[in-house]
Design goal:
By secondary structure, this protein is α/β, with parallel strands linked by helices. Helices cover 42% and strands 19% of the residues. Strand 1, helix 1 and strand 2 form a beta-alpha-beta unit.
């Protein structure tokens, strides 16, 4: 079992970074092999260029896929499980992670694959996908106002979609009062290894 963590937060002082360290420790303790795509540390380019748009929007598959995107494709090819870890900003993931989906989920790879037209290797179906997001508001409040449902719909049904066999979203809410939730969150992260191995 090999895990790819797509991590998106700009600050090492953040609670999300603390969760990343807990997650890495958990995977090491479970002897689960993993690698991390730290989008900010990588300075991953998230805005699509004009040439990329011409490839994606105009479905010109003769245009090349950029090298940094190809590197992410290779990481995905090596993974049995992908964990997306990020903070909730304005009811969704940070723009940098949205840009990762915009560019990495390229036409002919993550969708629109047709071997009779082109020879691009399509994205494999990943066994497990786990979305872990930290949120200031409590889970109860996010459920009450419908934000939790909308986040699950966008991430699990659209972005992960049929590309993953098994999908789950874990909202680590209530971080406005971090001392009240830190222990419960840590217990949740400590169980991730069991879910991956199921």
């Amino acid at each position: 079992m090999r895990v790819l963590i797509i991590y998106c937060h700009p600050s090492k002082k953040s609670y999300t970074y603390e969760v990343l360290q807990q997650l890495k420790t958990t995977l090491k303790n479970e002897q689960i092999d993993f690698e991390v795509s730290d989008l900010y540390a990588m300075r991953f380019k998230t805005d699509m260029s004009e040439a990329e748009y011409e490839r994606e929007g105009l479905v010109n598959l003769d245009l090349p896929i950029p090298g940094d995107v190809m590197k992410e494709h290779q990481k995905i090819a090596n993974a049995d499980c992908i964990i997306f870890l990020y903070p909730v900003w304005w009811s969704d993931c940070p723009a940098k992670l949205k840009g990762w989906f915009d560019r990495v989920y390229s036409v002919g790879y993550a969708y629109g694959h047709n071997k009779s037209i082109h020879t691009i290797e399509s994205m494999k179906t990943i066994s497990k996908g786990i979305v872990i997001c930290t949120a200031g508001h409590s889970n109860a409040f996010l459920n009450e106002i419908g934000i939790a449902k909308s986040m699950r719909t966008v991430m699990l049904d659209d972005r992960l979609g049929k590309r993953f066999k098994n999908k789950d979203m874990i909202i680590l809410g209530g971080t406005i009062n971090i001392d009240n939730v830190r222990t419960v969150h840590a217990e949740t992260i400590n169980k991730i290894g069991n879910y991956i191995k199921e």
